[in-house]
Every structure is written in C-alpha cells, then in structure tokens.
C-alpha cells in the first residue's frame, strides 16, 4: 500500500527537490558541454562565483567554494592558463592578489548560462501553465531559505 504524503511533509518536499536537482545538474552538465574540454564543472563554478561576486582574494574564493586554498590555487592556475581568470594586485593591499574574471571567462559564463536558460525554458514550457506560478513562488521561497541572493540583472542572457 502506497502512503500519500501531504505537501507540507518535509520528507516529501525534500524528495521532490532532490529529484528536481538531479534534472538541474543534468541540464548544467549539458550546458557546459561546449567548453567541457576546456574547464571542469568545479572550475565553471569558480567562474560563476567571480561573475556574481566580483574579484576575490584566493582564501575567500576557496571558502566560498568549500575547498582548500591549495585546491583553489590549482583551479585558478588552470583558469589563468585558459585566459579565463587573472591575478591582479589587491587595490586595498598591494601585498595581496585578487582573482578576477577575464573577458574570455565572462564570455564562457554567459554562453553556458544562455544554453542552460534555453534548456530550462523548454522544460518549463512543457509544464501545465497552471503549475508555473506555484513553481516560481516555491523556488523563490526555497532560494531565500537557503540564503542565495537573487540574481538582479539577467539582461545579458
């Protein structure tokens, strides 16, 4: 006998979010496929952090990514070699450097986001229109609860 869960059931909601996240990860992986030979998904995440938050010190970047500074250094080294990020003197302290996104890095981020947006748009278009508004409200509440800042300017997509 199958037990029906209510929408307020945390386990049911968690299962639904996990299932949706599997789909979103698959979309993300496909959207980066065009640059797959150039960068890895973790390296792409580094580019996205820099695009969204601006230049950062290596230790802050490592903390934000949840990796050791040595891992972040290796990621940055590879991205410097690919001309996607650069090290610049920190304007606040010339003894430190900050990591910045280059024009090439920004081009890669925007291209991947455009492909991701197109695929997600195709998926959303297949949803019944009556369910779309509820999804918007649920996702906004979910991201707010998770502390993710809203994306303010998507005009470049």
TrEMBL record:
Residues 1-144 form the HTH marR-type domain. GO terms for biological process: response to stress. InterPro entries: HTH_MarR-typ (IPR000835), MarR/SlyA-like (IPR039422), WH-like_DNA-bd_sf (IPR036388), WH_DNA-bd_sf (IPR036390). Pfam families: MarR. One of its GO terms (molecular function) is DNA-binding transcription factor activity. SMART domains: HTH_MARR (SM00347). This is MarR family transcriptional regulator. It comes from Lentzea tibetensis.
